[in-house]
Amino acid sequence: MIRQIDHTNRLIAENILAIQKPAYLVEAKLINFFEIPPLHETIDQLVQCKEIFYGYFVEDLLAGCVSITKDNQCIDICRLVVHPDYFRRGIGKALLTFIFDTYQNINEFSVMTGSKNEPAKKLYLSLGFSETSTIEIAPMVHLSQLVKRKK
Description:
By secondary structure, this protein is an alpha+beta fold. Helix content is 32%, strand content 36%. It has helices at residues 10-31, 43-48, 91-102, 118-126; strands at 2-5, 52-58, 61-70, 74-82, 108-114, 130-138, 141-149.
């Protein structure tokens, strides 16, 4: 089940961080870069962020979440995290599909991920995203921007 969650509630923020930190640790190992900001985010920082959060629940347990920001015609996917215990169960795809269905009037969806994070890139490409650019954020560390536009 997917539903919007209130990350300003400290208990919910703790649950998000309990998923986010191990998920980003997996990415950090894949891209060999351990300074990914969400990996070091505090509860206070998370509570104050201006993103909209949706959680994927397995029974009553938060197993994954996605956060977005939006303007009139673009959704930026800020984070898509699934606890490693729930990898390869379709949770990431379900969360993204939920965002597409919820925001049907939006023309563009954008996301950034580590260029060496092949599982994430494969997921985004399978859902109609195209890689549009890369940026170097540290020596030998690149992020890929992927965009999905309605036709």
